[in-house]
């Protein structure tokens, strides 16, 4: 386990060093992030100019959700998506051979190879938003709720990772899956809002199919006094189940990989 | 001997051939086209859910717009959004850097005609693919429509007006690449303004008064909110025709801008390769 963590850390460092060569990109990411957050704030203001609460959430509480959404988006774009995109390319071109021949677990390797340092700007911006929102709400935040927040955030991140890996594994079968990125980006947008406002069938979809509820709404609930012990337990159980399922799907997918003139 | 089939000459001929090619090419990629269209549905569905939630909490309507009318708005939205897909300004970097423009320059007509014709042809495939999506959304979200024949007629013109305006404005925006390649911040800004002031994010009636006034004098509204409201809103006959007149105006402005910016921009172009 320790060796694997060390391996992931090494990849992270190399990825960061690689990105540090292109410093202008930091400002591009920052501008993009600021424009995106500015737009989202305007949207929030527009919605709340017509109502006081949305599905039981006040505007400051929704700001917590938005912060978590931005944070999780940064995590996806810096850690999860680059790796999955690389995996899609490798399957298409047959270069996955180079990963499979290495003496380490292939699922681990394909999950930690890439790291987009500048995209991580959103993680900081998201945390700032959460902090601002909590100050505006003004209620004291207990250590327990912060711990629960961190825990649910990690669980949510794992859920999204599993979801992505399962999607990407379909590349072993249908080869061309670039549109999946488009599809996921579209659906991830739904996470800006508490999943409770979506009609029944969509809410179930955003909870279990695309785990937006666990990735965004649940961590935000932890900070706004909405998280029960049962929900926390449920999130943990769901994540464990999903990790096992993902492992199985990954193995099935690998069997279908035939390589292609790498 | 049979008379050979008369061929269309000149510009109409160019359009006919390019559009037909686009239909054939894009129909081959129908699965990819479909996946792309399905991915785009998330956006309006999210807006629709948010505003329906607000409307319900306010006793059934926001600014007089009911839940059913929101549904109608965002379902028509999906067609107008598809009509609004034109050559992306991000594509200009490739055209210039890889010298694709060189080939277009030696042809005897202005290159915008190829883009206009190609994407217009593509629209016919898109509209065909859109019909089942619209049917499904209608079954799920139960929109309320109140449509007259006149409105249908105006709508059929207005979606093409929207297409022309957005094509030309984005062409002008793309041509900025002749001067600089650091365009992403500018484009971000443009698309954000468009999102907020076009009716894409929300019906313009929900904007604060001053913002709605700003939206009136900008072109964005005539590429999004106006065509949608022709069908999904209740515009008076006068408003229907004022909208069309504004579209004509913006088409003219767009054409002028394309002509002028192209003249100066293309002088800065030096072909690489190709």
H/E element sequence of chain B: HHEEHHHHHHHHH
Quaternary state of the chains: heterodimer
DSSP strand content of chain B: under 5%
Q: Report the uncertain regions of chain A.
A: none
Largest pleated sheet of chain B = 2 strands, antiparallel
Describe the structure.
The complex is a heterodimer of chains A (262) and B (274). Chain A has one domain (2-255). In chain A, 75% of the residues lie in helices and 0% in strands. Chain A contains 12 helices and no strands. The radius of gyration of chain A is 19 Å and the shape is globular. The mean pLDDT of chain B is 90. Chain B has helices at residues 10-28, 30-57, 67-83, 91-97, 100-105, 112-141, 149-175, 184-197, 209-217, 225-232, 237-265, and strands at 61-62, 65-66. Chain B starts with 9 loop residues before the first helix and ends in a 9-residue tail after the last helix. The chains are: A mainly alpha (262), B mainly alpha (274). At the A-B interface, α2 and α9 of A face α2 and α8 of B.
List descriptors:
heterodimer, A: 262 residues, mainly alpha, 75% helix, 0% strand, B: 274 residues, two-stranded antiparallel ribbon, 2 strands, 71% helix, globular
Write a compact overview of the structure shown.
The complex is a heterodimer of chains A (262) and B (274). By secondary structure, chain A is mainly alpha-helical. Helix content of chain A is 75%, strand content 0%.
Topology:
The complex is a heterodimer of chains A (262) and B (274).
Chain A: H1 2-20, H2 24-48, H3 59-93, H4 97-100, H5 106-112, H6 121-137, H7 143-169, H8 171-174, H9 179-188, H10 200-209, H11 212-223, H12 229-255
Helix pairs in contact in A: 2-3, 3-6, 3-7, 3-11, 7-11, 7-12
Chain B: H1 10-28, H2 30-57, E1 61-62, E2 65-66, H3 67-83, H4 91-97, H5 100-105, H6 112-141, H7 149-175, H8 184-197, H9 209-217, H10 225-232, H11 237-265
Antiparallel strand pairs in B: 1-2
Helix pairs in contact in B: 1-6, 2-3, 2-6, 3-6, 3-10, 6-7, 7-10, 7-11
